[in-house]
Amino acid sequence: MTMINPTNLLDGFFVDICRWPNQVYQLLFEEHHYLGGPLAKGTYAWVVTDSNGRPAGFDASLPARGRILNRWREHRLVVLPEFRRQGVGRALSEYVGDYHLGRGQSFSSTTESAAMGDYRDRSPLWKPTRWNHKARGSTSSSSSRQAVRDVPRYCHLYVGRAHATRSLAAP
User: Fold this and answer.
1) pLDDT of 57-82, one tens digit each?
2) What gap in Å lies between CA 45 and CA 61, rounded to an integer?
3) What is the pTM of this model?
4) How is the chain split among helix, strand and coil, in percent rounded to 5?
5) Pick from 130, 125, 124: nearest CA to 154
6) Which residue of 126, 137, 155, 165 is 20 to 30 Å from 120, comparing CA positions?
């Protein structure tokens, strides 16, 4: 995969803005995410490649609905199976969070992944929201591979490194 302006994400992994998010997501990543269907309109996306240019991960964000302006939420975070458990997903999600914070926007994420949720519960970079550890409830949609579910979800607001540094330095 060719990148236009790659940035070092982790040792051996690079990230760049994804120019054609729906096409890239559908061709390479959709089958590895529990939600089906195309990405929402207005999505911004990033792709991660390894040092050989092989796609490794994908993250998308979009403006959150509601009354609060400049609020964005993570839409789809996918790491291909051979690249999991290497910190790619965490680093990519936090890279996207930093992108939004740097533009004066807030960034939140909801996941059903216990590994990611537990990490965020412990991380000073993420703050749990009032919906953290609550079950999503029933969902039934023809555009989603998600069946009726009653699983806990993890909901966090990304506060970033500057906030984490201040929190750790406090007496």
Assistant:
1) 999 999 988 767 789 999 999 999 99
2) 6
3) 0.85
4) 30, 30, 40
5) 130
6) 137
